[in-house]
Amino acid sequence: MKQSKIYSSNRAPGNGSLPNTSPKIERLKRLDIVTLFPAMFEGPMSESLLGRAGKRGIIDIRTHNLRDWSASDRHRTIDDRPYGGGPGMVIQVEPIYRALRTLKVQGAKFFGKKKKPHVIYLSPQGRVLTQAHAASLSKRPWIILVCGHYEGIDERALSLIDEEVSIGDYVLTGGELPAMVLADVVVRLVPGVVKEAGSLAEESFQDGHLDYPHFTRPAVWKGKRVPAVLLSGDHAAIRKWRTAQAILATRKKRPELLTRRKR
């Protein structure tokens, strides 16, 4: 029997009703995650911003065990040896096809038959995730994440995928951690998830550079003082200082970002 973990309240989309939002404003409402290890998502999806977004009915996040769509035997096998030889195992195309077919039918009950999900395969061969890319994804009403494992998925399954996404030029054990990263960076950009929306506009990468330095109480710690301008109450001067500091931080830590910005 297929059992999906739902990290949302009864008000969330995918549970029978959609939140009251303007039809002109597209935003992420449902996120399905297909994985071999759904238990890995319990903490990240139920705590902090993502957990609160689900409980408040802003977004419906569901994890699904790919083994529920095994095409073979009672052992719920979803992988096999690669043709041509070589190490490791490859995830079969049929379970992925069955999972996506089922989820599309489920989603159509809430979005309508015309609304199609944007299917993403987490892969080291994919487009590297950036803040701009995440902002674009946050405007897609429905996303399905497919987590790879072992040596990856059967190449024929890529015909069912809209895009491959990577979180960096390195190899992880599977797609679960990248899926968590993508979910976090995208969901927090959905209107209503972050309490102070203005803070999103001043983060690193939002304007082609890193964030400015932050300070809080005490004003003096072990002889180190908070910059006087931040205590001045002069908001124009503070904005000017923060802009200058953001550029300095970028030049010191990530100079390539400034080069990209000039192109």
Q: Could you tell me the number of beta strands? A: 10
CATH topology of the largest domain: Alpha/beta knot
Q: How widely separated are the two ends?
A: 54 Å
Order of helices and strands: EEHHEEEHEHEEHEEHH
Question: Taking Cα atoms only, what radius of gyration do you get, to the nearest Å?
Answer: 22 Å
Helix content: 25-40%
Describe the structure.
- The chain is an alpha/beta fold and 263 residues long.
- The protein has helices spanning 42-46, 48-55, 93-111, 131-137, 176-187, 235-253, 255-262, and strands at 5-6, 30-35, 60-65, 79-80, 90-91, 118-128, 142-147, 163-166, 220-221, 224-225.
- The protein folds into 2 domains: 5-187, 3-Layer(aba) Sandwich (Alpha/beta knot); 204-262, tRNA(m1g37)methyltransferase, domain 2 (Trp Operon Repressor, Chain A, Orthogonal Bundle), CATH 1.10.1270.20.
- The protein contains 7 helices and 10 strands.
- The longest helix has 19 residues, at 93-111.
- The protein starts with a strand and ends with a helix.
Note the main attributes of this structure.
Alpha/beta knot; elongated; six-stranded mixed sheet; single chain; two-stranded antiparallel sheet; 7 helices; alpha/beta; Trp Operon Repressor, Chain A; 263 residues
